[in-house]
Specification:
The structure is a homodimer. Chain A is an all-alpha fold. Chain A has helices at 7-28, 44-47, 52-66, 105-120, 129-148, 150-160, 163-170, 174-181, 184-204, 216-247. Chain A is globular, with a radius of gyration of 19 Å. Chains A and B meet through helix 1, helix 2, helix 3, helix 5 and helix 9 of A and helix 1, helix 2, helix 3, helix 5 and helix 9 of B.
């Protein structure tokens, strides 16, 4: 897909991603926390030093790398040692971003494991390690995409171009950049829309009362405290990288 | 999860699966049909004689088999040559089903490729082969689970035990069994609930107008024409296998 860099079109993508994330969390919430799947080295020699979720994520990324997933500028792998793509490059695709190495996936993984899973899942161990890990991989990939989409947001804001952003980036002023990429009205909209989606999706589960629903306030809180801030940090790092590449 | 075999609890699982399926189809519908990903041998030596979706499904099943996915009686692989599980068996899990080899996944794959994808996706080729294939794998796994859950439904109906079912199974009367497992009122409920879910999920996408929604009638029709009938055929096959195992 050739991304359209208007802020309107980028926001449509982010709105679409909310559904994937909310739905992924609802899927994960069917199972208990199952803390052991996040503990490195708990599953024997073949899984090795990694935790079970990391192992599954790594194996999934190996397969998806073959499908050229990580040649797309809106995808960022959690692991570095991945095979090359089997598919040829997408014809006529023009990457609208400048080169920017920022990859905050280790933070995404930590926040997911330590904040998000405990917030959406009941505590305890139900033995559903495989199913929980499969949901985790889906959630982690969706969250990573959402957070790193900040690069597109930043490029769009840069091109819409108030000179402030360019100047703050050139002078390397992270705090000023963070102020400039912050739009509290938009953030409030995102948070309230996510809460609404979690409510609606929860309501659909009437009849499946055995399956725990997800708390809309918890999902809204996760967006507010973690997902939006990580996205903004990616925006700041992108703008700094952009200023450097303009100078050189 | 130790499955509870009451029809009520089984229906709750099926209702929950509807959300996964409807959501999976909405995800797939973001991309065009991309017919080439279903054509065997179109992606070079490494993908080989399989089609691209088959290749990704096979690789995903290899990874999921390591996570013991296919030791669960509600999971049926599309491919046979899978590695053994890395995880030990789930402790204290009692499989409530009798041994039944029925696996209709080749039919699930064909129906998905020839009926479901053309019904939910716009025609044409947008080059998003990897993303489409990733969605396809998710949909195929969800559909397979839904269809083969017929084994649990059948076991539950058998245990609830009108003698008719046992007799028809013993005499190998497929037509009579199909009549006995058919409950038109329940089917109507399923179809109308699925239509409602597709409507609601579609409504959530307001704001992302670039992304095509899914037609609720199309999704309802897919359930009516394909998903429910395949599930009932699995029920019949299971009851036949059950009668044989009772005799032997």
């Amino acid at each position: 897909m050739n991304p359209d860099l208007s802020l309107k079109s980028i926001r449509a993508v982010l709105i679409r991603q909310e559904e994937t994330i909310v739905f992924g969390l609802i899927e994960r919430a069917q199972f208990m926390r199952n803390g052991i799947i996040y503990k490195p080295g708990s599953f024997g020699a073949e899984v090795g030093a990694d935790c079970l979720v990391g192992y599954l994520l790594h194996e999934t990324e190996r397969v998806h790398a073959r499908m050229r997933r990580y040649t797309s500028p809106d995808e960022h792998p959690f692991y570095r040692d991945l095979p090359g793509p089997l598919l040829p490059a997408v014809a006529n695709y023009e990457n609208p971003l400048i080169e920017c190495e920022t990859n905050v996936n280790s933070e995404v993984f930590g926040v997911y494991r330590d904040e998000i899973v405990p917030a959406v899942c009941r505590g305890g161990d139900d033995g559903n390690y495989g199913s929980s890990s499969v949901c985790d991989v889906m959630c982690l990939q969706a969250l990573s995409r959402r957070v790193h989409y900040g690069k597109f947001v930043a490029e769009s804001k840069y091109r819409a171009g108030t000179s402030d952003i360019g100047e703050a980036a050139l002078s390397g002023d992270r705090n000023r950049l963070m102020e400039l990429v912050t739009d509290l009205a938009v953030e409030r909209d995102v948070i309230s829309r996510v809460r609404q989606k979690a409510e609606l999706y929860g309501r659909l589960e009437v009849g499946a009362s055995a399956v725990p629903r997800i708390d809309p306030d918890v999902v809204a809180g996760l967006y507010e405290r973690w997902i939006i801030p990580m996205n903004k940090r990616v925006q700041v790092e992108y703008l700094l990288a952009r200023a450097k590449s303009a100078v050189s």
